[in-house]
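Z., the sequence and structure:
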Amino acid sequence: MRKRDGTEPYVFDWDVDPATSPFGSVLTPLQPSSIIDFTNPEAYAFWRDEHKALFDAGVDVIKVDFGEQVPDDCVAFNGDSGRRLHNVYALLYNRCEYEATARYGRGLAMVWLRANWTGAQRYPMQSGGDPQSAWEGMCASIRGGLAWGLTGVPFYSTDIGGFYGARQPDPELYLRWLQWSVFSSHMRVHGIGPREPWAFGSEALTIAKRWIGFRYRLLPYLKAMCDEASASGLPVMRAMALAFPDDRLAWPFEEQFMCGDCLLVAPVKHPGGTVDVYLPRGEDWIDLNTGARYAGGTLQRQKVGLDTLPYFGRVGYVLPLGPEIDRADAMDAKAPLNEAWAFGAVTVARNGFAQLRCTSIDGHYRVECAGGRVTQR
């Protein structure tokens, strides 16, 4: 980028005063920076190709941080002012990083994004930025992810535990954040200070391992939902207003969500474990912690222990699950499923397929099981 008069490169001076900086004192003070001009083909190619060394060294995914700092008074190569370029700049930045990954990375390209703009769905996937380590920071992250899904961007992650705060997250907040994140398309722990499960005590470690283990079992289902999202634009995490547009009573429940077609997730939003769950009308629902069946159009108040997240199966649907593994590349591509939970009265076909598959048919699932088992719920 250039200064307004076009003669000198623009140098961006970060606000490093702890009293006014958005980063406070949690980061090493940022140094004056140039701004890559992605409207300049030579600058674009330079930045893209500089990533080759990273991928050659074994990097798999780039986290595309920042991208919001485009001052009004700079001028781009294409003649745009910073004011005009500000919003689209993040999209150009993300496109460049995505193309670098596609060109030099291994496998299908993916980038971990922060700032973005219209067209972001072309360069998956989206992170919620740096939430504060507080209950409202967690709830805002849920609402933000669901709102993002309403724009046609189907993949989302949050910083489990929050990124920053006056205090580190306690074990309760950390575990509640982790539990609902199991049902997002992408998942990571990240923040200023320890975020590994073992940093929160032995009880928290045991509970976190259980939920992370279930995350791995969910991978075949999440893969099916990601495939559906790529084809239809429906997000993996679906707001109540999107999943049940005709049930207006569901709309105010802004933090509960559908994970794909068949799972309703009700995050614990406050200390103590009490949750009000609205079960949308027109459906029956199976409580996957107790096995109880509830009619839709009802409000359920639950008080759950620290190890429990309220979540429900939609009657008439099947949840395909994989085996217990400890890393994604341990999954057997020839037999990714070993169990299916059938919610209520559904038809599950058994046959001799060598590869277990889950396909969406008219909004339902046909699970073709070979050597696995079907559990009725």
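The two ends are 60 Å apart (CA to CA). Helices lie at 41-49, 52-56, 82-104, 135-150, 171-181, 202-232, 240-243.

Let me know what you think.
H.
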